[in-house]
Design goal:
With about 290 residues, the protein is an alpha/beta fold. It is built from 9 helices and 8 strands. Helix 6 crosses helix 8, helix 7 packs antiparallel against helix 8 and helix 7 packs across helix 9.
């Protein structure tokens, strides 16, 4: 029986396994730091990070949980949520704001407290386009930095920032790459399709990345885990593409019981339905059980 990865040299960094393999381990922390320093505001540079638990709970047992892909803290106390988003969700922005409340709330101190907060950066690496295309094609932006501003466009609060990268909008070819920022975007989009490392990507940080991404260096268990993650990624893409072709979603995935039920009837797993609709595994399982009673 042939493997779906037997002809691949490097992992797909947009899969759950690939993203966490390259950016979510202590030994590859420098890769994450270098990547963040290319996409954060110019006046913000990260020197070090500590990985924190990605499973966050609310103040009470009844509160909804949040499970981040990566969650890190700098020595200065800055919080960084880093998420890889594979499919468009209608309430994606709402979800980002909701998730950002967890690193804010966890800073609360018992007893007397002056409410001083450390900065929170919520970063979304998107494998889809979520903004409407502007009429001026020359000014299409794929890198968004959002913060709280007043009616005059002046920054009201500079300690909460949402940063989004719409990867499908990055279309430069390897020979056109000039900056480290562009090289990172190229790697994220095309790594799994490469058989050799391009001459343009010879910096030390990319030497380490390509070595970490080479499937031949994986253990048997890592190969199996990656293959399962890749299947999951492709399943999501197939579901989204099929839904668009059928004209049911018009480019958006609604967060509704009907779409969850539709996914269940089509035989999709709870994990796939969750990734596409944004609903929790618990909600989907509840609906699945209600459909069988």
């Amino acid at each position: 029986m042939s493997s779906i990865i037997e002809n691949d040299k490097y992992i797909n960094p947009l899969t759950d396994f690939g993203f966490k393999k390259l950016f979510g381990t202590e030994m590859n922390k420098d890769l994450l730091i270098d990547f963040l320093n290319q996409i954060l505001p110019k006046n913000k540079k990260v020197k070090d990070l500590a990985y924190s638990s990605t499973d966050k709970t609310g103040a009470t047992k009844k509160d909804r949980k949040a499970i981040f892909d990566l969650y890190c803290t700098s020595p200065e106390g800055d919080r960084f949520i880093v998420e890889m988003q594979k499919a468009k969700q209608t309430y994606f922005k709402d979800r980002s704001v909701f998730y950002a409340t967890f690193p804010i709330q966890e800073q609360a101190e018992r007893g007397d407290w002056n409410f001083k907060l450390s900065p929170v950066y919520s970063i979304g690496v998107l494998d889809f386009e979520f903004e409407d295309e502007p009429s001026d094609k020359e000014n299409i932006s794929l890198h968004h930095i959002i913060e709280l501003k007043n009616q005059k466009g002046e920054v009201f609060y500079d300690k909460l920032k949402f940063i989004y990268l719409e990867l499908p909008k990055f279309t430069k070819k390897v020979e056109e790459l000039k900056t480290r920022y562009e090289k990172w975007l190229y790697v994220l989009r095309h790594l799994s399709n490469l058989q050799e490392r391009p001459k343009t990507l010879q910096e030390r940080v990319f030497n380490k990345l390509f070595q970490a991404a080479e499937i031949a260096n994986f253990s048997k268990e890592e190969k199996e885990a990656y293959e399962e993650s890749l299947k999951h990624y492709r399943d999501i893409k197939n579901v989204v593409d099929s839904s668009k072709e059928e004209g049911r979603l018009e480019g958006k995935i609604e967060e509704s019981d009907e779409n969850v039920k539709n996914g269940i009837l089509k035989g999709h797993s709870n994990e796939i339905i969750s990734d596409i609709t944004g609903r929790s595994i618990e909600d989907i399982q509840r609906i699945r059980e209600e459909m069988t009673t």
